[in-house]
């Protein structure tokens, strides 16, 4: 699933190519891609058509377009394979195109989703902590790249939890935008094993971890995000290159770039965690 850097790359592309454009017509090509819009496909089409795209915004891994004059948000769930592509009308539609909006600037905004886990939905906008967000995003915490992100407050929350630190990093209500890839990368940089209990970590350790998450996601963003296959691309269909710079994730049996020890892979929440056995020792009492 795309994480913060990948979603931010898409957001910037949408900001450049579709903000200010008006939706002339909309076509839903697969009903699953609007299943989160409970009023149905016809209602979504009616509410988006004729609207102007005022802004492209994001919180963590959650992306939305604000619509005017309605004052609503088009919330985009990318899921595992969703893509927001901006194409000229004469470009043949992609095999897995699910929703297509024709814009008055000469482009089409196409939602392409091979696995149909993602989708579009219209939602009201609410104010949370002085920031306007779509109602479905109201419970999502700020992310480390947000200028208003409060690292000390997040440290306090983490210290008050009794859970594994990687599990806490993936909890979008504590800190958003961090997924499996960047959790492993931040933990490697902070020299912490993902099974370490949050309430046994010191404040300096937690600050270092949050700073590491900020740094690694910023570096990934500068390289267009992390792409392992053709499913993650920006609005122009281009892949990101940060996978070449990963220090832990996906590097099983390759040497740690700090100490040379082979990176290990462990099971974690129906997925995999990657870490260095020497630089990131397991907490005592765990296997």
Question: How many domains comprise the coordinates?
Answer: 2
Query: What is the beta-strand fraction?
Result: 15-25%
Element pattern in H and E: HEHEEEEEEEEHHHHEE
Number of strands: 11
> Portion of residues in helices?
10-25%
Structural class assignment = alpha+beta
CATH class of the largest domain: Alpha Beta
User: How far apart, in Å, are the first and last alpha carbons?
Assistant: 28 Å
Instruction: Tell me the name of the CATH homologous superfamily of the largest domain.
Output: MutM-like, N-terminal
Which CATH-level-2 architecture of the largest domain? Alpha-Beta Barrel
Strand order in the largest sheet? 2-3-4-8-9
Short description:
The protein has 287 residues and is α+β, with helices and mostly antiparallel strands. It has six helices and eleven strands. The chain folds into two domains: 4-137, N-terminal domain of MutM-like DNA repair proteins; 151-275, Orthogonal Bundle (Helicase, Ruva Protein, domain 3).
Structure, explained:
The protein has 287 residues and is of the alpha+beta class. It has two domains: 4-137, MutM-like, N-terminal (N-terminal domain of MutM-like DNA repair proteins), CATH 3.20.190; 151-275, Helicase, Ruva Protein, domain 3. Helix content is 23%, strand content 24%. The strands form three sheets. Strands 2-3-4-8-9 form a five-stranded antiparallel β-sheet. Strands 1-6-7-5 form a four-stranded antiparallel β-sheet, covered by helices on one side. It has a two-stranded antiparallel sheet with strand order 10-11. Strand 8 and strand 9 (131-134) form a beta hairpin. The two termini are 28 Å apart. The model is unreliable at 227-232 (pLDDT under 50).
């Amino acid at each position: 699933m795309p994480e913060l850097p990948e979603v931010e790359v898409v957001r910037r592309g949408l900001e450049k190519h579709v903000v200010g454009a008006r939706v002339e017509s909309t076509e839903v090509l697969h009903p699953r891609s609007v299943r989160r819009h409970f009023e149905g496909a016809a209602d979504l089409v009616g509410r988006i058509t004729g609207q102007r795209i005022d802004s492209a915004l994001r919180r963590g891994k959650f992306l939305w377009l604000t619509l005017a004059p309605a004052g609503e948000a088009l919330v985009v769930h990318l899921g595992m394979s969703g893509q927001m592509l901006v194409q000229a009308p004469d470009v043949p539609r992609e095999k897995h195109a699910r929703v297509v909006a024709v814009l008055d600037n000469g482009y089409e905004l196409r939602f392409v989703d091979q696995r149909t886990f993602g989708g579009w939905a219209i939602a009201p906008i609410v104010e949370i902590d002085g920031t306007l967000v779509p109602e479905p995003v109201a419970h999502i915490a700020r992310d480390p790249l947000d200028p208003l992100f409060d690292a000390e407050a997040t440290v306090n929350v983490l210290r008050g939890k009794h859970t594994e630190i990687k599990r806490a990093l993936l909890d979008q209500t504590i800190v958003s935008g961090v997924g499996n890839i960047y959790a492993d990368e931040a933990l490697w940089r902070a020299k912490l094993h993902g099974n370490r209990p949050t309430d046994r970590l010191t404040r300096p350790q937690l600050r270092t971890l949050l700073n590491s998450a900020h740094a690694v996601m910023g570096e990934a963003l500068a390289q267009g995000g992390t792409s392992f296959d053709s499913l993650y691309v920006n609005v122009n269909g281009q892949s990101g290159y940060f996978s070449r710079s990963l220090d832990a994730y996906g590097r099983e049996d390759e040497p740690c770039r700090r100490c040379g020890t082979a990176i290990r892979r462990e099971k974690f929440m129906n997925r995999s965690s990657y870490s260095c056995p020497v630089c990131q020792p397991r907490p005592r009492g765990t296997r």
